[in-house]
Amino acid sequence: MKNLYRLATQSLPLGSDLPLTASSLFVVDSNNSAVLFVASADSSDYGVFRVDRSGSTVAARLVSVPGEIVGLEHLALSDELCLATAAGEVMVVKLAGEDGGREPEEVTFCGGGLEAMGWSPEQEVVVTLNVVTMNSAYDPINEVSLQEDTFGDREFMSVGWGKKETQFHGSEGKGARTKKKDEPVEVDLRSLDRRVKIGWREDGELFVVGFLGPYGRAFKVFSKEGALQFTSEKCCGLEVALGWRPSGLWIATPQVLRDKYVVALFEKNGLKHREIELPFNRAEEAVEGLHWSNDSEVLIVRTFKTSSVKSCLYFYTIGNYHWYVKQYLEFDKRILGVQWDAKYSEGRTLHVLLENGQYEVSRWDFAVDHSTGQGRSDESLVAVIDGSQVLLTNFRGVVVPPPMCGFTLKSDRQINGVGFLRNPEGPWDSNCFFVVDSTNKITFYQPEFTEGTVRRLAGVKTLPKDLELGPGTFSHWLWLRNDLLIVADGSNFVKIFKIVETKLELQLSLEIGSPGDRIGCIESVSGNAALIELLTGQTFKLTLERGIGLEESTKLPEFCELLQVHPTGKVYSLRNRQNLYANGMKIASDVTSIFLTERYLLFTTIAELKFVDVANGDAIVGDRRVERGSKLVVVVPKAARTVFQLPRGNLEAITPRVLTLCLVVEHLDGLEYHKAFDILRKERINLNLMVDHKPGLFLENLDRFLEEITNVNWLNLFISDLQNQDVCREMYGSNYAGREVPAIDGYSVETKIEQLCDRFLVAMNKAESNEAYILPKITCYVKKGLLEQALQVIWDLKKAQRQEGAAEEALKYLLYLVEVNDLYNVALGMHETYYQRICASYGDHLRQNAKQTDASLMYEKAGDYAQAIASARNAVDWGRCLRLARLAGYADDELRRLVQALLPAVQEAGEYRAAARLAKEYLKNDRQAVEILLKDHLFEEALLEADRDLVDKVILSNLDEYLQTLIQKLQSEKEEFLKHKDRLLAVRVEKERRKAEPHHDEEDGRDVEDCDLYSDVSTVASSRHTSSSGRSGMSKDMDTLVEGTKFGDVKILIDGQRFLAYKGILSARSAVFAAMFNHPMEENTENCITINDVEPGVFKELLRYIYTDQLTCLETMAQKLYQAADKYDIQTLKSLCRCHILKKMSSETAADTLVLADMHGDKEMKSHALGFLSGSDAAKVTKSAGWKKMFRTHPYLVDETIEALTARKTVG
């Protein structure tokens, strides 16, 4: 979205005595940009001349040279001039010291002659041709022949990946396969230019040499040591010019194709990447040079027109993968050379030497051309130059990413400038603009927009002022007002033109500063004044109100490429990508872009957007993160839209909170409450701002607020959001710095809610559509804590019966606002109808919170016996179920069905006696009652209930089975006891033996003071037993394998980390690894396993256990190790993790443990988890994060938990 402009220019004649030809060379002094060295190519007088443009511009001979000079370089460190002659001599001319200006000293000689010479950017390596690489001491490093038929050390094989014809792109791919390729023009090799060109990449690691090969022109890429790396692919039609982009991406060279002329861009490997199509053909204009700026932002294409004998410069930039022509310069004489200044302090300074001895120095920089109005009529129009067209986009209406646009304005000639009307008058507005073409013809335009909420750019209308300025070096075009145009002419002259119907009338031409000064910037101050800045940083104020006056203004600490003047007169200036100043005082550094609005100055750093309050001492009042490298394009006036251009060239639009609040304030001051509310709601800004901005104004216009906010939901949201605090001070202080609120009778922030609700109720009761405010009234009463009045509103609505269901909807809304417990307490003292409804709602609330017994009580009070019985059943309160069934008038059959349904739950709750009683008394089934008692081994009670037949058939058989089981259990426990007894005895004997040893040292072995507390199944104890000091030597040795990175026969890759392991050990410890390595699987044949579902740290601990039977991180990763052990079937580790998880189980972790057990089918862990949950405090468990997650993801486990809880209840 930026255009390229000439900031300053200086044109100097070097004198007619300087012998120049088409092959003359020049170079700028690397230490002093004002000094120029020119190599004469006159066959009768070879030599080097020195020119100092800061003093006399007459060229002075420095040295004479015995032959034609083919290479010229200034060496910064040694302050020497290095020359290469066609005869093969490489000479040095010392410029400083006593030897300065003496005859050149020959430092080396190349037999066979030289065609070119090129120094690396850091001037450590020099290349001469045939390709001879030397260091800065001129010692040879390597020599290579260009005609060798080899590709280079980096030769590769291309399989076509990346080309559209080899990919699946639908119609696009098919089109790429069938598209006819651009055919180059076949040329006779004998007619091609045989010159050789050398170019370096900016980092000095690689250089490129263009030459004429056996198939036409080509290039080769070498390392700085002179080793051949790459050779370009075969491309016919390549020409001599060559330029390597400093950032290293592309090597540029012209190419003639059959139907077009292009600049081909090659990658360093020699493959063609893309091309820039030139706006002319080879027969009319030929490319003579390609020159990249030092920051890689600008590519200059230098051409020569054979018909008119003129030289041209095309300035190209790239954005969002599109190449733009930003400037076009034409010279009457041939250009001998072009060079970008290497000094960073000089910015983008360009040196151009013409064949007639004219020397031009110009400084260039980028700027965004946009409309500058501050009203809603300004469409934030941005103009982008692209060759002979201007791309226009109005960002108030649309955000169109470049190179697309809202409208394209086309011209017959190349366009060099565009600008907007700065101080419009009459029928014109700030969207009007002008265009300057390459012949200095000025055309004025007025854009036309569509009607509607979103205005789009429909076209442009040419104003009756198509004016010619004539030849000249003009810059800094400023359309100050409708009838006045200011422009810089040459170095330090300003011309003021009055615009009349058909011509420009020159009012005055002023010289700014001294003859050696150069104008660097002109900026509008008002309709009658402008600010002019020189490259020295000195500014001048040009006034046009009563005559024309010029006076010195602020002296800036350094030259700033960008000036912006606030209506208050404050001047903000930016040194490109460096310092930001306010009236010459530094306020920020590392600034990349700025934009000035009515109240704030916005500026960006490398990754932040910051806001400076212009009216509050330039304090930074806000910031926010933006994408790295983003720069401001435009801020839409009277709106919050802020548009950035990202480094890739595409756009991003945001609405910063600081600017949004300014827009809201404007609406509030204008009593536009609907617009303000809509913005606050969309941007999630606290709604209290509508009151706190100006409380007095809001209270005076409360009726208007209700008239504009017709959406009841908006009104409810506003009242609900009211707070007894001043959000302007506490939340949005950056926009309200220094704010003072006048005292208001009867209003204070501490009682804001009560006072506003009272006023709202009064206003809503007066309104004609009173019923429309039912819900807002309820909200007001709730906000004041008057729940009884809120219920009364609903009761009155119910009695009125004007709208069916309105009272029920209002009650639902009230239940949404209020905690049901509080509402129930209030309803107790009110009408019975509402008491029952509140009880029913309260019951729903209790049931949802798993409080089934309390819910049953509430349902009973509400008269809903069905829900009351259902809740009692869920609570396994069988006595209450029966009582409620009688109250509900259940028949005998219904009662029996209820008891039959209750029996399984009562038994699961362990209440076997109660279940037997229910079976006997209500079902009249003695056999079922006896069988229930026997399930709990209640033989004595079963005998009392049974007759002789049941004793023989049921009780005796169950008793015999129970005795056999009991005997087996006792025998098993005896064997387990004896085993542990023997183990404990052996451990104690071993402890005594170790103590008796003469060299016993507790630190060398395991601490055995309490080792009899551990058995064979305890593989992990406290940290003192798992530390490296307490382990055997073999365990320590095996532990080193975990960290090993050199040995192993299988590689395991996890998230970019590599582990080396041994198949044998893994197979011995894990059945899964054994199956993997015992079968012809890919992991076995490739000796490489990729694991995606285990973290690197967990797998490392798993390996440690496999190798050493030891763990170090069980406390922190027990669950993850459990999952890994289950996956790889390592049962001992799984058992160990299970024990630890169950030992550490709490109300917070029990639900997670239950889910883990269920996922891995671990019945033992699941049983323990269910037992823990059923015996814990239900309130604590249900509030845990694990329980809430289980409720969403594993609802059936919640049911199982409730069943387990029910099974533990005793007979009530």
Automatic annotation (TrEMBL):
Record keywords: Coiled coil, Cytoplasm, Nucleus, tRNA processing
UniProt gene name: 6039341
PANTHER family tied to this protein: ELONGATOR COMPLEX PROTEIN 1
Location within or outside the cell: Cytoplasm; Nucleus
Family of this protein: Belongs to the ELP1/IKA1 family.
Any one annotated GO CC term: cytosol
GO molecular function, one term: tRNA binding
Chief subcellular location: cytoplasm
SMART domains per the UniProt record, alphabetical: BTB
Organism: Culex quinquefasciatus (Southern house mosquito)
GO biological process, one term: tRNA wobble base 5-methoxycarbonylmethyl-2-thiouridinylation
Signal peptide: none
Residue ranges that the Swiss-Prot or TrEMBL entry lists as coiled coil: 956-987
Protein name: Elongator complex protein 1
Superkingdom as given in the UniProt entry: Eukaryota
Function: Component of the elongator complex which is required for multiple tRNA modifications, including mcm5U (5-methoxycarbonylmethyl uridine), mcm5s2U (5-methoxycarbonylmethyl-2-thiouridine), and ncm5U (5-carbamoylmethyl uridine). The elongator complex catalyzes formation of carboxymethyluridine in the wobble base at position 34 in tRNAs.
Pathway: tRNA modification; 5-methoxycarbonylmethyl-2-thiouridine-tRNA biosynthesis
Family annotation (Pfam families): A-sol_ELP1, Beta-prop_ELP1_1st, Beta-prop_ELP1_2nd, BTB, HB_ELP1
Boundaries of every BTB domain copy: 1048-1115
